[in-house]
Amino acid sequence: MGTDRVGLLSRRTMLLSGAGFALPGVACPRPARAGQSYTLVARPAQVPLTGPGQPATAVLAYGASVPGPTLRVRQGEPVSIVVENRLDQDTTVHWHGIRLPIAMDGVPGISQPPIRPGEKFLYEFTPPDAGTFWYHPHANSLQQLGRGLAGALIVEERSPVPVDRERLWTIMDWRLKPDGQIAAGFGNRMEAAMSGRIGNTVTVNGVVPPDEPVRAGERIRLRLLNTALARIMALRFEAHRPVVVAIDGQPCDPHEPASGRLLLAPAMRIDVVLDMQGDPGRRYAVTDDYDDDLEYVLLHLAYAREAPVRPHPDGAPLRLPRNPLPEPDLATADRRELVLQGGMMGGMRGMGSAVWAINGVSMTGDGHAGMAPVTTLELGRSYVLRLRNDTAWLHPMHLHGHSFRILSRNGAPVPHNQWADTVLVAPKETVDVAFVADNPGDWMLHCHVTDHQAAGLMGVLRIEAAARR
Fold first, then answer.
1. Is the pLDDT of residue 419 over 90?
2. What is the CATH code of the structural domain delimited by 165-303?
3. Which of 276, 299, 315, 342 could share a disulfide with 209, CB 3.0–4.6 Å?
4. DSSP SS3 for 27
């Protein structure tokens, strides 16, 4: 199938067709690097997703744009962010991938009360890790994330890799009607039992992407962020060799991806370094070929006609400084198995309104008070979690409040010292991950195909000083 297709529609058809507390009034979103304080206002907005001259799309936004403003903060320094709710429904904000206190995690009923319409909530934390993270609601997630509420949170390294410049691609997936408006049908049970709500329009930084201008010889750090509800991507850079330097914000051994494809499931981030070795004046495709039948060109790298910045690739080292993650002791680690169950072709019967389960337990929605833990872990102890996917569908599994080392897939070691907070588990696959349970609280573990989470594929890992086994 041709590479000018986006989802089910051609690009041309697509274009046509601490605890919080109440605060007094605060100004609209603004960066304030001194003091690292921000304000985010969740509100309805109109944005031109499909380009100039096309109908604006009614969305939910932080401020007046999708994605929301990129928040840039410094590693190891306190951050304060006021979130004001101007929606007609409750909301929260989850700081995805940040290791922070449970009271700041943004799960209603578990870590905080929801932010009611007209109210504000103050989030305060000190990010211990540098890297690419993001923020999004954990209340009515299907609608709020699916209608645009998401943004990047960049924690800057004290010693970043030397590059000529940096780019962020926040990739979103939308299901639009011919008039450019978001189609209804969130929470369709049939979709929830299969691959989730996949759209027909992909945007980068809030628009159907134009060319990405580059210059021969330059070195670019590219931060990739997938905020889609369900779309899994495999990005291939024509005639280029991206080097992966971080996964989910955590540095890894620099390496080229297997088969040259960057696999990016919902909620995942990948930082790559690109040496621009193309010919001046040429355009090179960046293609999402995860699904052979729906392959499409995301955008083109468009080279300026100027002479190269340098004649040969920059020889500076690419390794990022390691974050202060506690190393699990595999020799003494306690081992727990978590089995992912349900879905279409996976024994949905007897699960009531839920479609999915973990170890036979279904937790629907976004989180609520009184959720019993799937398992209880002892504070300070090392654990190996075996995630066994007994379903016929892929699941990007996200653990709040922690990062884990990916040890193996079906018993085969995973190379390159990869740490993550979201790991993609294929059908019938078993993935072993390890971490130190050093952050006390009730932490969500859920699939980040949001339909799957809302339909039961979610549980709580309780970490406390006195474990109950």
1. yes
2. 2.60.40.420
3. 299
4. coil
